[in-house]
Amino acid sequence: MQLKHFFQLVRWKNLVLIALMQFLIKFYFFVPFESYNSLSYSSFCLFVFTTITITASGYIINDLIDLKVDLINKPKKMIIQKHLSVLNAKKAYFSLLFIGLICGVGLSIIIKKPFYSLIFITIILLLFIYSKFLKGKLLVGNLFVSLLLSFSILILLIFDFTPPENYLKWSSYHIIHKLIVFYAFCTFLLNLIREIIKDIEDVNGDSSQNLNTYPVVYGKESAKKLALIISVFTAFFFLFIIFKQLRANSTALLYSLISVCIPLLYFCVKLYSSKTKLEYSYLSKILKIIILIGVLSIPLISNYFINAI
Fold first, then answer.
1. Cα 238 to chain center, whole Å?
2. To 5 degrees, how large is the angle CA 217–CA 223–CA 229?
3. Domain ranges of the chain
4. Model pLDDT for residues 64-117, shown as the tens digit of each residue
5. Structure-model confidence comparison of residues 172 and 158, the more confident one
6. Cystine design at 136: which of 169, 195, 211, 289 (Cβ 3.0–4.6 Å)?
7. Tens-place pLDDT, residues 108-127
8. What span, in angstroms and rounded, lies between the C-alpha atoms of 136 and 117?
9. What average pLDDT does the chain have?
10. pLDDT of residue 1 exceeding 60
C-alpha cells in the first residue's frame, strides 16, 4: 500500500481540518483569555493526536462496511480492493483503534481523570454503530455524524477548559464557552447540509442496497428542498449573529460577510438550480471550503473579543 492511498483512505484533509480547529481554539481562545487550562502543551498535542487517530479509524470502518455501496456510488475513488486489500484495511483499522485507545487512556491518566477514558471508548463505539447500523437510516445517520463532528469542538470544554476560581474572570469564561458552542453549532449545521447533499449524490448506490436515506425514501427533489431550507436558515442565523455581535468591529464584520455569508448565499442559489451528481459534488466542496474559512476566522474573532473585555 502506498502512503498516499492510506492518507486518502483516512480522509487526511478532514483530519487536518479537525486538528487545525482544535489548535486554533486552544491558542486563540483558551491561552489569550487566561482560562484555566487542564492540558499542558504536550498533553494537548496527545489529545489532538488521539482525536484524529480515532476519527481516522472511523473513516476506515465506514469504507469497509460500505464496500458494495461505494462500488456503485464512487468506483473511481475507492481505495479498499482497488489499492488496498480488505485484510490490510482491517489491520489499519484495528491498529489505529488500538493506538487511539491507548493514547486516550494514557491522556486521561496523565491529567488524573481516568474516567475520561470512557469518552474515547464511547466515541469508538458510536463510530462503529453509525457505520454499521445508522448510516442508512432516515436522517438519523446525517444527524448522528454531524453531532459527532461538532463534538470534536465541544470535547475541548471537557478536557481543556476549567471554570476559574476567581469570580472576576467568569465573564471571559462565559464568552469563550458561548463562542465554542457557536462554532460547534455552525459546524453541525453545515455538515448536516453536506451529509444530505452527499446522500443525494449517492442515491443510486444507496437505493440498490436498500438504505433508507432521505433521497431514497422521499426523492432527490424533496431532499434538495430540505437541504435548501436548512441552508437558508443557517445563512440568516449567521447574518443575525454577525450583525449582533460584530457590528462594532468593521474588520471582523466584513471578513464574516465576504468569507462566510456571501459564499453560503451563493451555495443556496446554486443548490436551488442543481440537478446533476456533478453539481451536487461541487456544492459539497463549497461547503467544505466554507467550513475551512469559518475555522480560519477564529484568530480574528478571538482578537475582537479580547479587546472587548
1. 18
2. 140
3. 3-308
4. 998 888 888 888 888 998 888 999 999 999 999 999 999 999 999 999 999 999
5. 158
6. 211
7. 999 999 999 999 999 999 99
8. 29
9. 89
10. no
The residue type of 116 is: Y
pLDDT tens column, 40-51: 899 999 999 999
Show the cell assigned to 20.
Answer: 487545525
pLDDT tens digits for 138-168? 899 899 999 999 999 999 999 988 776 665 5
Distant-in-sequence contacts of 103-107, Cβ < 8 A, 24+ apart = 103/46, 103/49, 103/50, 103/53, 104/50, 104/54, 106/46, 107/43, 107/46, 107/47, 107/50, 107/159
Q: How far apart are CA 62 and CA 132, in angstroms?
A: 8
Angle at 151 between CA 189 and CA 196, to 5 degrees: 35
Q: Looking at the predicted structure, is the pLDDT value of residue 272 above 80?
A: yes
Residue 278: per-residue pLDDT: 92
Any idea which residue has 491529567 for its cell?
111
